[in-house]
Design goal:
mainly beta, 4 helices, flat, 4-stranded antiparallel sheet, about 300 residues
Length: about 300
Amino acid sequence: IKALDSANRPLQTELSLAVVDMSVLALKGNPKKNPVTFFYDGLPLFVTTTSNLKNILYEIDVPSNSKGGGGGADDNLSRKKRGKFEDTAFWRGVVETDTRGLATVAFTLPDNLTTWQVESVGITKNTELGVDYEEIVARKEVMVVGLKPRFIIPGDEFSVGAQIFNQTEKPQKLVITFESATLALEETHGQTSVAVANGESKTVYFALHAPPNIQSGKHTFALSAKNAGYEDVVEYSIPIKQNDTYEAVATANYTRAPSAKEFVLLPDTVVQNKGGATIMTSATLAVFLGDALRYL
């Protein structure tokens, strides 16, 4: 980090630093700060009427020939399994530059293959203000992106997709593999081949079944795309949720006899350790107005 004033002289300053996935920022229109306006701009009288329904999502036009940035070509790193995904790669509230206007921070990017926005906002003791935005790109020439549900209910039948991106200069024939210790494939194999033209992407799907005996925790699976020259392996986890859909049943009776019987039949598939029954009795028909009377 290098901090300079308007005359390009080094500044000893204090700043905050954030590195965030731009695809997340795009959901809010990527709001960029202007600290000078925030601290020194006038505040006229005005009335603003807004609606949050107008623009919920922003569509970003990505050029078809966009290939992102370069980066190290370390072979071990290029074949590393990706499984740690975060929206924020780094944040530090206080970073101080020295008298030369310099500071150094180091961090490891998560496994997201995306464009990261680096935001640095600084202020000096004399309230000199500044902000800067830079972009860095984490990419691979062959990438796999998993398409998965947000959660799984025991016994579910569903599909997981593998979207393969080919950012090399040539068409690539790749072997796509699905592996999981807990999810069962509907077919006997979890491997297929696909040819992807350069600069394009294709998606393949695997039909899966969630075993009903696994009731909690999460299902983990890995998707890979490989050939002799390229490889990408990505690991995902999907939480398991119980099918706890509550149903309410009510029955009522009145009689002049000394006793009365009411019957509630429970299905065999009901969850035994959840739910309950409420019984109310009264000497008059006012029992049917109990909730209304309490409200009044």
